[in-house]
Amino acid sequence: MKKNKIIITILFLVGLTFGYYYNQRIHEVREQPVSDYNRISRYDLYNYEEAILKEGNYQKLFDLIGEADVDRLPYTIVMYDAYNNLDAGDLLLQLYLLYYGEIKNRNKRAMIPLKEYVKTIIIESTEKGQHFSSEHLKELKKYE
């Protein structure tokens, strides 16, 4: 009887020790990704912003737009206005349609300034020779 209690106590302590070390491995502090896509780490986000705002790097803009928790609109506007990147105009149209599709039932008036800005971009870009997706233009006309 006494032998069984000693064996059970030793097995309990071995199990408790094993569980403690195993639990420590599970709950290690790891860097949390910015989004599920995990393309840009939290620490590289500043470098991406700097490359977009200072250099006008379109590839960095495209990578940043793929992130889930990043406000994409200001970077796209800067890319179009400051660097005259016509591809950014097309991205801006896509983002407008995305945002409008999400909030059209809540507050349409909030989108009026952005809608007017997108219309001027479409006019300016078509004068410069940029072609927009016909599906996006049809969808824009549908929202009016």
What would your notes on this structure say?
The chain has 144 residues and is mainly alpha-helical. 69% of the residues lie in helices and 0% in strands. The chain contains seven helices and no strands. Helix 5 (86-103) packs across helix 7 (134-143). The chain starts with a helix and ends with a helix. The model has no long low-confidence stretch (mean pLDDT 80).
Oligomer: single chain
Q: What string, H for helix and E for strand, traces the elements in order?
A: HHHHHHH
Q: What is the approximate shape?
A: elongated
Low-confidence stretches: none
As a whole number of angstroms, the C-alpha radius of gyration is 26 Å
Q: Biggest β-sheet, characterized?
A: none
Number of helices: 7
- Overall pLDDT, averaged? 80
- Strand portion, in percent? under 5%
Terminal-residue CA separation: 85 Å
Name the helicity range.
Answer: 55-70%
Structural class: mainly alpha
Q: How many distinct beta strands?
A: 0
Q: What's the SSE blueprint?
A:
Layout (H helix, E strand, L loop, with lengths): L1 H25 L18 H11 L2 H8 L7 H11 L2 H18 L8 H16 L6 H10 L1
Entry keywords:
single chain; 144 residues; mainly alpha; elongated
Task: Give a short overview.
It contains 7 helices and no strands. With 144 residues, it is mainly α. The relative contact order is 0.08.
